[in-house]
Amino acid sequence: MSDAILQTVGLTKEFRGFVAVNDVNLSIRRGTIHGLIGPNGAGKTTCFNLLTKFLQPTRGSIRYDGRDITGMKPAEVARLGLVRSFQISAVFPHLSVLENVRVALQRQRGGSFDFWRSDSLLRQYDARARELLEDVGLTAYAGLTAGELPYGRKRALEIATTLALDPVMMLLDEPTAGMTHDDVGRIVQLIRRVSAGRTVLLVEHNLTVVSGLCDFITVLARGSVLAEGDYATVARNPDVIAAYLGDEASTEAAHG
Ligand SMILES: Nc1ncnc2c1ncn2[C@@H]1O[C@H](COP(=O)(O)OP(=O)(O)OP(=O)(O)O)[C@@H](O)[C@H]1O
Questions:
Q1: 3-state secondary structure of 252
Q2: At what angle do helices 97-110 and 126-135 cross, to 10 degrees?
Q3: Ligand 1: which of 22, 45, 87, 220 to mutate, most ligand atoms within 8 Å of CB?
Q4: Within this chain, do residues 176 and 253 fall inside the same structural domain, yes or no?
Q5: Are 71 and 186 in a shared domain?
Q6: Structural domain boundaries, residue 66
């Protein structure tokens, strides 16, 4: 069996002639935390959406665990264990933290959305939901509504609802975006803990997070792979440094 769990060949996405992702060959090793980084507009989010099937590529192919998933729908790949973290908007703000995880568990096991009619059924999931809350450090928050959670804890809830789907491979889109320093530390520890026995692909802006978590990094710039390797290798690559400095310079120029 291949050491790579997820592979792309010639992955390309054009938006009306603009090439956002250009001939990208990725190989993500089973059991690793793989970072996808790059300056603003590099194509990270587009790439992430291609891998999770939220976008269809213009060209190229994607293989996951020995299968060609290029033509599959997001729900189909999720059933195969390739799961993206839910966006915060997918958390139900008026349900409690515990109920949010129960609903995610029910979707995994039953695939049904008529949870409002089957309270007794949902209680069956309580024990597992509490375990997941424990795993992400939210036990003390179980009874709060999700809307009342502080931002960093919402991201932890998002990870708990993702874990409820029992992913083989998790794809996380900027899990630390907008977080305070303390929250970042907690989420880093959490990702490390939940990555045990799984593969994780992480799109992330915070390079400290990337250096602390990722076994292997792919740097994108202008839609193409600029460099790959461990953090030390890519961080000293002159092309990577130039791409990031160029990005900072243009950000500074934009902000005066
Ligand atoms: N739906 C779309 N239609 C047209 N252009 C798009 C679309 N989505 C993305 N793009 C363009 O593709 C390029 C790559 O965008 P993408 O969001 O993938 O980059 P990114 O690396 O995630 O950037 P950031 O770090 O700023 O989030 C950008 O120039 C963007 O404007």
A1: helix
A2: 120
A3: 45
A4: yes
A5: yes
A6: 1-81+167-256
Give the Cβ contact number of residue 245 at 10 Å.
11
Among the three residues 119, 136, 166, which one is the final residue of a domain in this structure? Answer: 166
Residue 108 and residue 222 in one domain: no
Ligand 1 centroid distance, CA of 41 (Å) = 5
d(C-alpha 242, C-alpha 142), whole Å: 46
Residues 75 and 97 in one domain: no
Mutate which of 15, 16, 204 for ligand 1? The one with the most ligand atoms within 8 Å of its CB, which is 15
Report the complex ipTM: 0.95
Record the pTM.
0.87
Q: What is the pLDDT of residues 128-185, one digit of tens each?
A: 999 999 988 899 999 999 999 988 888 889 889 988 888 999 999 988 888 888 888 8
Start-to-end CA distance of the chain, whole Å, equals 53
173/229 same-domain check: yes
pLDDT digits (tens, 9 = 90+) for 49-85: 999 999 999 999 999 999 999 999 988 998 899 999 8
Same domain, 57 and 106: no
pLDDT digits (tens, 9 = 90+) for 12-33: 999 998 999 999 999 999 999 9
- Tokens representing 195 are 């990555």
* 16 CA closest ligand 1 atom index: 4
Ligand 1 environment, Cβ below 6 A: 15, 18, 20, 38, 40-46
In the reported structure, the alpha carbon of residue 20 is separated from the centroid of ligand 1 by a whole-number distance in angstroms of: 6
